[in-house]
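Predicting holo structure, glycine bound.
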Amino acid sequence: MTEQQPAPENPEGDEPIKQRKNGLYPAVSDELAASMKSGWADTELHDLQPVAQAAETARRRAGLSARFPGERLVIPAGNLKTRSNDTEYSFRASTEYVYLTGDQTQDGVLVLEPAGAQGHEATLYLLPRSNRENGEFWLDGMGELWVGRRHSLTEAERLYGMPCGDVRELADALREATGPVRAVRGHDAGIEAALTDKVTAERDEELRVFVSEQRLVKDAFEVGELQKAVDSTVRGFEDVVKVLDKAEATSERYIEGTFFLRARVEGNDVGYGSICAAGPHATTLHWVRNDGAVRSGDLLLLDAGVETNSLYTADVTRTLPINGTYTGLQRKIYDAVFEAQEAGIAAVRPGAKYRDFHDAAQRVLAEKLVEWGLVEGPVERVLELGLQRRWTLHGTGHMLGLDVHDCAVARTETYVDGVLEPGMVLTVEPGLYFQADDTTVPEEYRGIGVRIEDDILVTEDGNRNLSAALPRAASDVEAWMASLKG
Ligand code: GLY
Ligand code: MN
Ligand code: MN
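Done. Tokens:
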């Protein structure tokens, strides 16, 4: 990286230049400062088309407006977060902001201003293009010379279909404004500080809950993006199978890196930390250290999802035999999880209770555990007491969308206790996990973990498995791996 140098005592320019975060400026001669002000072409873009989801974001803002009439609503994208010293994590805009604007710009803020009978007027507050007169564009840490060209506010208006303003003036304006206001918390400390005397946690939470519930049913744009995320994820799984020998020679990190390459080339990122769990690591639900050995004869549980450039993520798991063939016991456990997943997927249809697919999958797993003599039946007793959960560990799925665990603050009555509707997308992901130190199961079970996870769209008459291109049945998985390893 290039470090900026100490500031001169009197920075050149019409107005003081904003302090870079690390407080350093390069030394600037008068001649250089004068030179840097001019000689730059006009690069304004005049033929920009609205983003693909502009009509959908407008409809979502209208829904929000109708729910909170007469109230100012503030939805920040969020700010960069420090990783270490003057380096930051890569930026990922808040889900609420992306959902309501289609934009992903750091420090951006959407404000819905009450506008009488028209409901609200939406304005997007963004950092404009850098000023070249005062040197900001090359001397400030957020200057375009350092971080790249931004859209002008006029360009942003075309892209996002609403008026845009300078975000540097927003905090003061919010401080001075009167009237009821709500904000989505947790993303932008500066905006929250400006509103601190005007908002309450309870009212703000109602705003967040509403946007979470708006996202329960996906529109056609969102389903298309989720399908893209899944399709890239399928290719990422194929990439991994092709390099399992290299992973055996190194570690689980080779798998993580291989999948990440696909995610970065075809999308924005991975939607969550990839779980690349070989051997007994498969029994650790969120194994993301990925620093273990990859051994022939063991299973690899790979739980990974590409996040598209629009920020929709897939969430897919396959449990693969590293050498291409399941052992007898691995296959017995795999087949049980597969059967549970089949039962779960069959329970996904409009009008079904959200809990049905979980209950259907859990019942199959409980039956298997009783059949194998690992827990004393009858099955009804096991289910009633939840005894299967020692080995099934987690819920059988969740909503999927911009967040991997999407709609996370939707109310119980609309989500977990709710009813499935066409357009909902959820994962179905039963698993069985026998910990390496579980002395209640025969030794040969210990260290085996299996999960199978697919992304399921609720349709008008049932469901569609968005990740069906990735084989699930044990024999199909083996054949697929053999074809890829050629
Ligand atoms: N990858 C996290 C989950 O499956 O929910
Ligand atoms: Mn997953
Ligand atoms: Mn999941």
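The chain has 17 helices and 17 strands.
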